Amino acid sequence: MASFIVYFLLITIIPIWASMRVKSSYNNYSKVPNSTNMTGAEVARRILDSNGLYDVAIEEQRGFLSDHYDPRSKVVRLSSANYHGNSLAATAVAAHEVGHAIQDQQEYAFLRLRSSLVPIATFGSNASYFFLIAGFFFGMTKLALLGIIFMALAVLFQVVTLPVEFNASSRAMDQVVSLGIIRNDEERGAKKVLNAAALTYVAAAAVALMELLRFVLMYVGLNNSED
Prior knowledge:
Blueprint: H1 2-29, H2 40-50, E1 57-61, E2 68-70, E3 75-79, H3 80-84, H4 88-105, H5 109-138, H6 141-178, H7 187-226
Parallel strand pairs: 1-3
Antiparallel strand pairs: 2-3
Helix pairs in contact: 1-7, 2-4, 4-6, 4-7, 5-6, 6-7
């Protein structure tokens, strides 16, 4: 019982902690204007054009930190605060999303892999618990194993996401520095925003791996009880 409580606390606290880190870093640097006074939309356009991505559009997106790159539509979508804002936080987030557009242009292997995993991961995430619950409830090891396989596919998506996000942040920093969008003394702030955002993906992957491990151990226990 004690171990379950510890486990429950970990999978609850880790994502909350990561989310708080993101909000704290973002809020701090959303109050610090960049030295070039460029908005997030202008930063994104500058980097896109510098990399020959003239066909990639930039759109304003509602919501808090709802920023993302849509590879199907070839659109960088920035939340209103980052689209119009000229802060270091807006600069970092906009550059990060353009980093994904550059990955798409250069056919970055992990981005291609993650895109190919989307339908499998979505199905695995939705179906895994049905098979797991049914398998453990009725003592059907094959059904439980199928659920674990489906869950593992969803976890694989989370793991593959990590290099995609870290690489996009690395590209973002290279671009804003080489294009003179931020000064040397502003790099630390931009990196803090990007590193905090990366923590959310690390936390999600860690929780997913812990959940997978829990069911694997339950499956082993179920198998042993049948012997």
